[in-house]
Amino acid sequence: MTHWREPAPGEREAGDRSWEVVRSAFEARTPSPAGHNWRPIVIVALGVAVLAAAFTPPGLAVWSSLRDAVTSEDHLLSLPTEGRILVNSPSGAWVVKRDGSKRLLGGYLDASWSPHGLYLAAARGNDLVALEPNGSVHWKLARARPIGGPQWSYEGYRIAYLAGPALRVVNGNSTGDRLISPNVVGSGLPAFAWRPATHELAYRDNRNELVLLDVDTKRVLWRLTKTNGIERLLWSDDGQRLFVAGGEPMVVDAAGHVITAFSPQNLLPAAFAPRTRALAVVTSTNGQSTVSIYSGPRYKRRRVVFSGAGTFAGLAWSPDQRWLLVDWRSADQWIFIRSAAVRRIAVRNIGNTFDSGPEHFASLAGWCCP
Amino acid sequence: MAARRGDERAWIRGAQQGSVSDLEALFRHHWPKAYRAAYLVVHDAGAAEDIAQESFLAAVRGLDRFDRRRPFGPWLHRIVVNRAIDWSRARALRRESGNAALEVVAAPAAPDNPHAQTLAAALGSLSPEHRAVIVLRHLLEYTPGEIAEVLGLPRGTVNSRLRRGLDELAARFGEELQ
To answer: What DSSP state is assigned to residue A249?
Structure first.
């Protein structure tokens, strides 16, 4: 019977992780110690006063304000695993830590993580800004046109960004700024993505062709002409698979050969699982959105993870690959989906949590390193 | 691992008064068996972590109402084992709908104990209800009467499940469980 006494697989690590969650929950519920507890008396007195006042016209107005305050409550009290989530909202970039604390970096748009989460690159009007998650600015680079969509290369030595319709690249220390393409907007959305472990940039040019360019040598490595309405490009972590989202979504390999072509449909948002080639995508049909994971050598294996009414606006994998976060915009919720146990955590009132309100939405910009 | 009953009462009292260190002592003492019990019923490390973790969270939520004169273990184990049975039933029902999707890409747990995996694999051939009574009896060392109380079953049902489960295990697992 000795086997009953031996640890089960993962027991200790799971215990350490779970203790952090339990401790957070415990601290959130523990009342502050107080010498003499006047709280119940004060609450009753306040309750009587509120009831007395609530039925007068000014009282009704106050009641309405109170109701608004309650409905803007922040329900994002912690993250279910290690890492920090970056959120772009109309008021700026938010960094959400594991313990649920949130820092607003006001006025910054289109923020993105550097590879190890030490820095952010963001746009502020015509400035490209590199800053720390605590808001300390390292450098700024002013351009003549509005800045958009900065992205770091794998080791942080290059940043690709938009200045108006032009695609540019600058070194990670703000030197060596150069033009890559004068117009990558053309008739559609800009789309570009660094290939991991390289300085090769995939982007959609103004003829809607897909190009892989070595930005250091300016050499075009390959070009795919038979594309249709490319909207977004995503590389797998090993740099061997590129998901091309758009009118005719497909996955190509590092040499530009098509691995699989999906039937024409919108497969966005999407996200490769960390350290794998499995791809999570959202499909929408008849007002219903579904998160599926495609895997296998030719992405023929599809498994449904989560479905819901309305729109899913973002996906992000946790750095440890154990959780998939779904931004369920129509429900104003974030859904954290746990891998093996299909456990779900729903966090509501996301719009107000990030001061974006129901009309202006906050968008997921990555779940980065602890 | 051994803790006196008085230690546990002191930890619970301390936790009820807001002491994080007492809660941690209670957690560290009970985590191994809670996790192991869940693992042996569900045979899935990720699910076992969730089940044990959620059981502790439920315990934290109910801590203020907990009667310190009662032992903490049975209270926690009741939650763990019933959740593990529910999870196993739900997975059996959902197997065709692909809800285990993320397992494909989840990082596998390190095989740090092949014996526990073998045992869990052998238990996996039983129904969740049979697994639960065997885990309660042999891992958590409850008497059949206590198991009946934890699972809300007649004692005769517990005995018959124990007998049948052990017979099936013995056939698969040799003499290890004798």
So the answer is: -
Question: Does residue A159 register a pLDDT over 50?
Answer: yes
How many secondary structure helices (H) and strands (E) does chain A include? 4, 28
C-beta atoms of B40 and A29 within 8 A: no
How close, in Å, is residue A314 to chain B by CA atoms? 17
Q: Which class in CATH covers the domain with range A84-368? A: mainly beta
Instruction: Note whether residue B178 is domain-resident.
Output: no
pLDDT band at A136 (very low <50, low <70, confident <90, very high): very high
For the whole model, what pTM was predicted? 0.61
Task: Please report whether residue B32 resides in a domain.
Answer: yes
Those residues whose C-beta lies under 8 Å from the C-beta of residue B8, and which sit 6 or more positions away, are B26, B29, B71, B72
**Terminal C-alpha separation, chain B:** 25
Amino acid at A107: G
Tell if the CB–CB gap between B113 and A276 is shorter than 8 Å. Answer: no
- What total number of domains does chain B contain? 1
In chain B, whose CA is at the least distance from the CA of A29?
Answer: B61
Question: Rounded to a whole number, what is the distance in Å from the CA of B31 to chain A's nearest CA?
Answer: 6
Contacts of B177 in chain A (CB under 8 A): 1
Q: What pLDDT, on the 0 to 100 scale, is given for residue A47?
A: 41
Looking at the domain assignment, is residue B110 inside a domain? yes
B164-168, long-range: CB < 8 A, 24+ apart:
B164/B130, B165/B126, B165/B130, B165/B131, B165/B133, B165/B134, B166/B134, B168/B125, B168/B126, B168/B130
In this complex, is the C-beta atom of B119 within 8 Å of any C-beta atom belonging to chain A?
A: yes
CATH 2.130.10.10 domain position(s) in chain A: 84-368
Q: How far is A306 from chain B (nearest CA, A)?
A: 8
Q: Which tens digits make up the pLDDT trace of A244-274?
A: 998 889 999 999 999 999 988 888 999 999 9
Closest residue in chain B to residue A16, using alpha carbons only:
B28
Yes or no, beta carbons of A4 and B51 under 8 Å apart: no
Residue B20 domain boundaries: 5-173
Single-letter code of the amino acid located at A240:
Q
- Report if residue B165 sits inside a domain: yes
**Chain B residues touching residue A9 (CB < 8 angstroms):** 39, 45, 109-113, 116-117
- List all residues 6 or more positions away from B166 whose beta carbon is below 8 Å from its beta carbon: B134, B177
Q: What is the CATH number of the domain that holds B43?
A: 1.20.140.160
Number of H helices, E strands in chain B: 8, 0
**In sequence order, which residues have a C-beta less than 8 Å from that of residue B1 and are 6 or more positions away?**
B29, B32
Handedness of CA A102, A108, A112, A116 (dihedral sign): negative
- pLDDT bin (cut points 50, 70, 90) of residue B2 is low
